[in-house]
Amino acid sequence: MDSVMTWPSKVWKGFSFFINMINSFISPSSESITASESSYTNQILYSQEVNEKIGQAVKEGNLWNVICVVRNIIIQNKSRNPVRIAVTGDSGSGMSSFINALRFIGHEEEDSAPTGVVRTTQEPASYFSCEFPNVELWDLPGTGVTSQSMENYLHEMGFDNYDLIIIIASEQFSSNHVKLAKAMQSMRRKFYVVWTKLDRDLSSSPLSEPQLLQSIQKNIWENLQKEGMKEPPIFLVSNFEPSSHDFPKLRDTLKKDISNIRYTDSLETLSGICDKSIDYKAFSLKEAMQTEHLPMTVSRMCGTADLQESFKTHQESFGVDDGSLWQLAQRTGTLEMGYRAMQFQDLHKMSWRLKFLMCFPVGMFLNFLAHRCWFGLWNFVIRKCRHKRQRLIIEVVAQDTKTFLRRVLKENTFPTEVL
User: Fold this and answer.
1) Membrane-spanning residues where (predicted)?
2) Shortest CA distance to 50 belongs to which of 26, 27, 76, 28?
C-alpha cells in the first residue's frame, strides 16, 4: 500500500526533467527580448501625440486609422528633415564647379562654392539650392591629394551621415573612383557617377559626339564591372553648360530620389513605432492571460478547438481577420490585391515553438497526463502548456500584423512617383 501511495512521487521525478526541458524549450530568452527593444533606440522620435495616436489605433485593431495617421504625418513632415548629398571624387575633377552648375549659380557669386586649379576645398562645406528645397549639398575635399589611404578618407568624411553620394570624375575613371563606388555599394548608399568637363572632351576628341559619349560610358561601366558592381546612374555633363547634355536628366533623377529618400526614412521610422505599439499590445494580452481561467475539459486540454477559437479572436483584435481586411481593401481601393488573412493551418509555419507544442507526440503526452488515473495531479502542467500555446499564438498574430501593416503602409502612403 505504501509503495502505491509513493508511486506518483516517483513518476513525478521521472517527468520533472522532461517538463523543465519543455519549459526552457518554449520560453523566449531575455536576450532576444532585449535585442528587439534596442532596435528602436536609434529611431527619430516623433512627438508623444504621434505615438499615442498610432498606439490607440493599433490598440483598437483599426489598421485604416493607422494608415491615415501615418499618411498625414508623412505629408506634414516631408520637408522637415533635410536630405544630405555628398559630392566627392579626385581633387581637380570639378566638384565645386559641379555644385555651382547644379545650383544654376556663377562662380563669382557670393554664396558659390570656391573653385580653382589648385585644391580649394579643405574641409566639408554645405550649400543650398532653391531648386532642391531642404537639401544640403556637401562639397567634400577630394581624394588622391593627401597621403591618407582610401579607408581613412571614407572614415574621415563620414559617408554614413549622407543619404546620397555623387562621385565626380573627369579625364579618367581612376582606381579611387572605383574604390569609392565599391565602398558606397557595400555601405548600401545610393550613388551616381557624374563625368564633368564634357565640353573639353568634345573639343579635343577626334570622335563624334555620340561615339565619345558611348566611349566614356563604356569605360566607366567596364571599370565597375571588373569589381562585380551593379551599374549606377551615370551622367555626362559640362559644368559650363548647366542646361545641356545630361544635366536636365540628372536634376529630374535627383528630385525623384530625394523624394524617395525622404518618404522612405519617414515611413521606416513610423513603421517602427507601429511595430512597437503592436508588441506592446501583444505583451498586454499575454499578461492578461496569466490570470485567465481556462476550462479543463480533456478536449480543450489536448485538442486544437481552443487554439482555433483563440487564433480567430486575436486576429479580430489586431484587425487582420478576413472581415477586417476586406473592409480595409475597400477603403484603400485595393480589392484587386486580394488581402488575405493567415489561416489556422499555417500557424506551425510561423513559429517552431508552436509547431513543437502542436505536434503529435506532445499531444499524446498531454493526453497521457490528462488521464483520470492521475487524479488531476498534472493539471498545472497542462494549464502551463495551454497558456504557452495561447501566448505563442498571440506572438504569431502580432508578427503577421507587423508584416502586413508594413506592406499596406508602403502601398498606401508613398506617392506614385516614389513607387
Assistant:
1) 360-382
2) 76
